[in-house]
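Appendix B: complex inputs.
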Amino acid sequence: AQKITQTQPGMFVQEKEAVTLDCTYDTSDPSYGLFWYKQPSSGEMIFLIYQGSYDQQNATEGRYSLNFQKARKSANLVISASQLGDSAMYFCAMRGFISSGSARQLTFGSGTQLTVLP
Amino acid sequence: DTEVTQTPKHLVMGMTNKKSLKCEQHMGHRAMYWYKQKAKKPPELMFVYSYEKLSINESVPSRFSPECPNSSLLNLHLHALQPEDSALYLCASSLGTGGVQETQYFGPGTRLLVL
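Resulting structure:
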């Protein structure tokens, strides 16, 4: 079975500072993918960044980077230079096992509510 | 373009009503998903369509009925819902299997209130 754990229900960060959101995972599948999504209060789930289990380098997308430590089974999201618009719920997710065709399930963590303070 | 659209944005319905949620994508994605999300919780998978065929049904009550008329369109038909079905309903799509192609792109959701 797969499991994603986010241990920080809520986080606060000062505007322009960096923040790290924690995510640990457990899987017996040697090939897996990890995703981070942002969900503002409006409700839409916004894809931020992807890390494959065989990727040699940590993924980066603009101000977002993923600190991937395979041996520790962690995939922490780092947001640099926080902005007020970064205030949202953040979900870590893992690609599930093959179901059929082109479809894969996602296993989500419980989420971290980030608040950026002015 | 990574846009998934959903209509309506908001829906209020009585327990005897029949309504439908609509989801559309024009990215050539071959898999489409319905999720239900309660406040402050992660999304829960309801249904998955792969190549227009239902491939996953997560033991969802029969008052929810999915339909995939073509590769770009996904509907969720609602009938005789209960107040506990009130939630945000999210649609998502993904291109295929293998690495970043499995990324699911979500629509803005439909906020459903059942009275």
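Residues 94 and 107 of chain A are 5 Å apart (CA to CA).
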